[in-house]
Design a protein that fits this description.
Transferase, Pyrimidine Nucleoside Phosphorylase, Chain A, domain 3; Pyrimidine Nucleoside Phosphorylase, Chain A, domain 2; Aldehyde Oxidoreductase, domain 3; four-stranded mixed β-sheet; globular; binds uracil
Length: 439
C-alpha cells in the first residue's frame, strides 16, 4: 500500500493506513490505537483524519480489546487522580443524562453520610439535558472550580465534592468529543463508552455506578442500545480495576416534578429534608445502595441517613465548603405562565424529551458551550402520569426571565401530555429496569 504525506520522520504509523484498516472492517492493533490517540492529541493526526476514523468506528465498531485499549490511550493522554491516601473508600456515579435528573445533588452527600467518599467530577449541560454544575451554580456563591488539593481536602473533611473536571483529565477525550459533536459521530457506542469511562477511571474512584437512561429523554432511546452501552462500560471499568455496575433506568418521563437549575436544587433539598417526589427518592436510594456496596459498605442503609437528616448536614457542609450559602433563597425567574389540562381525565403520558426541550427553550440550558444559563428558568410539573385532572386545572408552571421564550416552550409541549378518559391507567413502567454487573 502506498505511503502518504509523511512530514514527520519518526511516526511509526500512517494515519491513512489506520483509517483504511477500520474502513475495511479490520481490527486496530494495540500499537496503532496508542499511536493514533496520542498523535491526534499532539496534533500530528489532523482533525479530518480523526473525523474519518471516528466515522469508520461508528459504522464498523470496535471489539472489547480495541475499546479497552482506546480507553487506556485516552487515560494516558492526561493525569490520573489518586485517592488511596483518604481514610475512606471512594465511590462515584455517572448518569448518561436525562430530564429532571438532579440525582447527583442528594446522592453525593447521602453516600458521604454513610461513610464513603464521593469525588464527583461533573459537567455542564448541552442540549436538552441539564448539567450538574449549572444546577449547583444556582446557589448563591457556589463555585465549581477547585484545585486538586482543595478537592482532596474537602473529600477528607466533608466526604463529598461535586466540582468541574480539571483540564488535565483525559485531554484526548476533550478534543475528540468536540470533533465528534460536529461530525455526526457522537452516537458510536465504543466512542461513548471510552469517552465516559476514560474520565471516570482517570478520576481514580474505587467503585462506580452507572445510571444508563432509556427512553425519549435519554441519549439512548432504544433499550437494546442502552444495554449494550451499559455492558460495554461495565466491562471497561472492571478491566481497569474499578468495581463497576450499571442500572438501566427509565427516562420516558421526567424525574421528579422539576426541570431547570434552581427548581431542581429546591427539589433536591426537599429530598434531603426527608420529603420530595417518590421517584427521585427511589432512584437516589437505589444508586446509593449500589455505591455503598461497591465500596464494601453493605452494613449501612442510606434510607436512614436521608430520614434522620445526616445527608442534609453533609449537603450544607459540601455547599459551604465551595463558597455557597446553603441557607440563601434560590433565584426565582421573573415571569411565570401556566399550562392547563385540555380535558377531564387521567394523565397517561408525560414526555421527557418535550419537557426537556421546553425547559431548555425557557433558558435553563444552552445551545452553544459559551452560552449562559438562567438559574430560575425551567418547568415545574403539577401532575405526573397516573394523576386524575379536570379540564382547566394547572398541569405545569413555566418559568423564565425572558417572556418572549414562552411561545417556543409551549410549542415544544404541544404533544407532551396525554390525558385519557377517566378509568384509564398509564403503562406500568418500573423506574429501575435492570441491573447489569460484570460477567
Ligand atoms: N458523555 C461523554 O462524556 N462522552 C460521550 O461520548 C457521550 C456522553
Amino acid at each position: 500500500m502506498a505511503q502518504h504525506h509523511h512530514d514527520e520522520q519518526h511516526e511509526p504509523f500512517d494515519a491513512v493506513d489506520v483509517i483504511r484498516t477500520k474502513r475495511d472492517r479490520g481490527r486496530l492493533s494495540p500499537e496503532e490505537i496508542d499511536w493514533v490517540v496520542d498523535a491526534y492529541t499532539r496534533g500530528v493526526v489532523a482533525d479530518e483524519q480523526m473525523s474519518a476514523l471516528a466515522m469508520a468506528i461508528l459504522l464498523n465498531g470496535m471489539d472489547r480489546a480495541e475499546i479497552s485499549r482506546w480507553t487506556a490511550a485516552m487515560i494516558a493522554s492526561g493525569e490520573r487522580m489518586e485517592f488511596s491516601r483518604l481514610t475512606r473508600p471512594t465511590a462515584d456515579k455517572h448518569s448518561t443524562g436525562g430530564v429532571g435528573d438532579k440525582i447527583t445533588l442528594p446522592l453525593a452527600p447521602l453516600v458521604a453520610a454513610c461513610g464513603v467518599a464521593v469525588p464527583q467530577l461533573s459537567g455542564r449541560g448541552l442540549g436538552h439535558t441539564g448539567g450538574t454544575l449549572d444546577k449547583l451554580e444556582a446557589i448563591p456563591g457556589w463555585r465549581a472550580a477547585l484545585t486538586n488539593a482543595e478537592m482532596m481536602a474537602q473529600l477528607e473533611d466533608v466526604g463529598a465534592v461535586i466540582c468541574q473536571a480539571g483540564s488535565g483529565l483525559a485531554p484526548a477525550d476533550r478534543k475528540l468529543y468536540a470533533l465528534r459533536d460536529v461530525t455526526g459521530t457522537v452516537e458510536a457506542i465504543p466512542l461513548i463508552a471510552s469517552s465516559i469511562m476514560s474520565k471516570k477511571i482517570a478520576e481514580g474512584t474505587g467503585a462506580l455506578v452507572l445510571d444508563v437512561k432509556v427512553g425519549s429523554g435519554a441519549f439512548m432511546k432504544d433499550e437494546g442500545q442502552a444495554r449494550e452501552l451499559a455492558r460495554t462500560m461495565v466491562a471497561l471499568g472492571t478491566d481497569a480495576g474499578v468495581r463497576t455496575v450499571a442500572l438501566l433506568t427509565d427516562m420516558s418521563t421526567p424525574l421528579g416534578l422539576t426541570a431547570g437549575n434552581a427548581l431542581e436544587v429546591r427539589e433536591s433539598v426537599e429530598v434531603l429534608a426527608g420529603g420530595g417526589p417518590a421517584d427521585v427518592v427511589e432512584l437516589t436510594v437505589a444508586l446509593a445502595r449500589e455505591m455503598l456496596e461497591g465500596a464494601g459498605r453493605t452494613d449501612v442503609d442510606p434510607a436512614d441517613a436521608l430520614r434522620d437528616g445526616r445527608a442534609m448536614d453533609v449537603w450544607r457542609r459540601m455547599i459551604a465548603a465551595q463558597g455557597g450559602d446553603p441557607g440563601a433563597p434560590l433565584p426565582v425567574a421573573r415571569h411565570q405562565e401556566q399550562v392547563l389540562a385540555p380535558a377531564d381525565g387521567v394523565v397517561v403520558g408525560l414526555d421527557a424529551l418535550a419537557v426537556g426541550v421546553a425547559a431548555w427553550r425557557l433558558g435553563a440550558g444552552r445551545a452553544r458551550k459559551e452560552d449562559p444559563v438562567q438559574a430560575g428558568a425551567g418547568v415545574e410539573l403539577h401532575a405526573r402520569p397516573g394523576a386524575v385532572v379536570r379540564a382547566g386545572e394547572v398541569l405545569m408552571t413555566l418559568h423564565t426571565d425572558t417572556p418572549e421564550r414562552f411561545d417556543r416552550a409551549r410549542a415544544a409541549l404541544a404533544e407532551a401530555v396525554t390525558v385519557a378518559p377517566e378509568g384509564s391507567r398509564p403503562p406500568e413502567r418500573p423506574l429501575v429496569i435492570d441491573r447489569i454487573a460484570a460477567d
